């Protein structure tokens, strides 16, 4: 897909367009009511309690962060502009698949994602949004399941977190930590306890690929005594770590 970047004429409602961050250039200046989309595809949901279910993924372009383990760098710049109407139709064209996930990049950078998600809910879809935790989730339709990342120090982006997001999580939401080392694990346990997360929603810890062993993380979780769910990225187990569009 080609980049659609028209930096003139920014839409004032978008949090992305209020910022001069050059990482956001690919989504600046899009037409009113349009989104910049990296890819749309159907696969198995892989990173939540919904893991294993068929799901239509809408991956939106651009991210303001640069996590050092990011596996979707291809979404930073590549994308094409689509009207919300065309995007809705593209999702519905997948037919019976009841689950839709908005992801990225960072899908909340484009404010137009909110009415799109509401429309998909109205159409009877179960809608998930996977977000970095660095942008406010305020204004998200209450029917949408927010899958919220918490960026640990090992990611290199912990300072970017919008901590108010953790005060807003509800029972239908989920919180994810990618654990890069033991210091990350201990830091994450402190966050879990500070926000009483395990009493409020599912909490997932995933091992950062190549930096923490599966057995190592499993033992840390069990030793912690916390009700934390060990999570492996299912699509990587099935299709490998480099395959795109799955
Ligand atoms: S928030 Fe997600 S898309 Fe953005 S850099 Fe981090 S891992 Fe990559």
Named CATH topology? TIM Barrel
Work out the count of structural domains. 1
Query: Into which percentage range does the β-strand content fall?
Result: 15-25%
Query: What is the percent of helical residues?
Result: 10-25%
| Strands side by side in the biggest sheet | 3-1-2-4-5-6-7-8-9
Largest sheet at a glance? Answer: 9 strands, mixed
What's the architecture in CATH terms? Alpha-Beta Barrel
Number of strands: 9
Low-confidence sequence ranges:
1-13
Mean pLDDT: 91
Structural class: alpha/beta
Order of helices and strands: EEEHEHEEHEHEHEH
How far apart the termini lie comes to 17 Å
Bound molecules: iron/sulfur cluster
Give the overall form: globular
How many alpha or pi helices? 6
Q: What's the Cα radius of gyration? A: 17 Å
Main features:
6 helices, alpha/beta, TIM Barrel, disordered N terminus, nine-stranded mixed β-sheet, 246 residues, 9 strands, single chain, binds iron/sulfur cluster, globular
Structure, described:
- The protein has 246 residues and is an alpha/beta fold.
- It has a single domain (17-239), classed as TIM Barrel (Alpha-Beta Barrel), CATH 3.20.20.70.
- Helices cover 22% and strands 21% of the residues.
- The protein contains 6 helices and 9 strands; from the N terminus they run βββαβαββαβαβαβα.
- α1 (84-92) runs parallel beside α2.
- The chain is globular, with a radius of gyration of 17 Å.
- The protein starts with 33 loop residues before the first strand and ends in a 7-residue tail after the last helix.
- Bound molecules: iron/sulfur cluster.
- Iron/sulfur cluster binds next to loops.
């Amino acid at each position: 897909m080609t980049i659609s970047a028209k930096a003139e004429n920014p839409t004032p409602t978008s949090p992305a367009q209020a910022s001069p961050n050059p990482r956001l250039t690919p989504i600046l200046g899009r037409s009113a009511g349009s989104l910049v989309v990296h890819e749309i595809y159907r696969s198995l949901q892989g990173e939540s309690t919904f893991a294993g279910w068929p799901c239509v993924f809408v991956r939106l372009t651009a991210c303001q962060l640069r996590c050092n383990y990011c596996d979707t760098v291809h979404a930073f710049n590549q994308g094409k502009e689509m009207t919300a109407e065309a995007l809705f139709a593209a999702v519905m064209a997948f037919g019976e698949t009841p689950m839709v996930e908005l992801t990225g990049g960072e899908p909340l950078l484009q404010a137009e994602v909110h009415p799109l998600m509401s429309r998909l809910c109205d159409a009877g879809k179960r809608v998930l949004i996977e977000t970095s935790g660095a942008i406010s989730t305020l204004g998200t339709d209450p029917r949408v399941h927010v899958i919220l990342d918490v960026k640990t120090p090992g990611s290199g982006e912990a300072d970017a977190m919008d901590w108010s997001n953790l005060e807003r999580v509800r029972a239908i939401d989920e919180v994810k930590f990618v654990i890069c080392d033991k210091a990350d694990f201990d830091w994450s346990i402190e966050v879990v306890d500070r926000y009483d997360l395990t009493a409020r929603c599912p909490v997932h810890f995933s091992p950062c690929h190549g930096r923490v062993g599966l057995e190592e993380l499993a033992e840390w979780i069990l030793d912690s005594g916390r009700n934390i769910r060990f999570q492996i990225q299912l699509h990587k187990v099935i299709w490998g770590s480099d395959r795109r569009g799955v």
